[in-house]
Design a protein that fits this description.
This protein has a six-stranded parallel β-sheet with strand order 1-8-5-4-2-3, sandwiched between helices. The protein has a two-stranded antiparallel ribbon with strand order 6-7. The protein has 363 residues and is of the alpha/beta class. The chain has 13 helices and eight strands. The protein is globular, with a radius of gyration of 20 Å. 52% of the residues lie in helices and 12% in strands. The chain binds zinc ion. The site of zinc ion has 6 residues, from helix 10.
Amino acid sequence: MATKIVISPGKYIQGPGEMKKIATYAKDYGQQAFIIADAFVMNMTTATLAESFANSTINYTAAKFNGECSKPEISRLQLLAQDSQSDLIIGIGGGKTLDTAKAIAFHMKKPVMIVPTIASTDAPCSALAVLYTEEGVFDEYLLLPTNPTVVLMDTEIIAAAPVRLLVSGMGDALATYFEARATYQANATTMAGAQPTDAAMAMAELCYRTLLSDGLKAKLAVERNVSNIAVEKIIEANTFLSGIGFESGGLAGAHAIHNGLTVLEDCHHLYHGEKVAFGTLTQLVLENAPLAEISEVLDFCRSVGLPTTLAELNAEQATEAQLREVAVAASVAGETIHNMPFPVTADDVYAAIVTVDQLSQTL
Ligand SMILES: [Zn+2]
């Protein structure tokens, strides 16, 4: 029998107003916390942090994150954390802030608390940080030996963020079940380093069902600056279910096609999850999924406003040569598309992209 591994954060906490209790949760892991956040998030949370820590036995030092998860920025903040003799690192904000906190904690061998203020990707729970150069160009992946010690989601803050971010998170979460299913069928290896467990598969499937039942309700609520049970369920699906699902269930076609789409200059303004949603549709065509399933995913994307055509990706001007470049990039050796349960060529990917665009205009 094959080895199966599931990995996850030590503790996942979610609810409205949870940021107010941050010190109560933090005190189980250290005596001196080092908190990083960018200027915007720092402004938004300063009073809440001060009040929470004032009522606690744990102290904290806060430092402003300069906006780029780069090696120099990680070193600069790590020195500040060491100077303040911190024994717990806390990152509050979006992906780059959170990844920087993960990297600092990794280098210092200290626990890390991840506090996302948006739910736009499934990265927060993962044992992964993406490093960029100071100029913002991709540098390398930092694969961490452990997932975050704690992930704390204040749904009041997350629901108040722009709706497009929550919808992008749904796009990222949409891929999870289909990529895990393909990985499972192929007996391929996940980011956790072995074959998927049934637990990760079940979470990936629940993630998809939650999107179908609650995605539209959540989107409409957040659009009008209110929250409801559907918003809570979508935040959990985008962050926790998709987080375990992608890392321990596997990545396959959808994310590779996303990576291919980054070749197109015209798509650069799109969010990760928006491109992943189109990648999901492309994967379904690639594997010749039943029309009913493709229609279900198309309907979902349309209901929440995720792109389903090249025009909606801002790529209607893309030439055949450019789309073939996307397909080549999506299928280079080592890409996760080779976790699909059959061989995939660049020609297959090109054909699937074109077919999705036509199907979407026909159905
Ligand atoms: Zn993703």
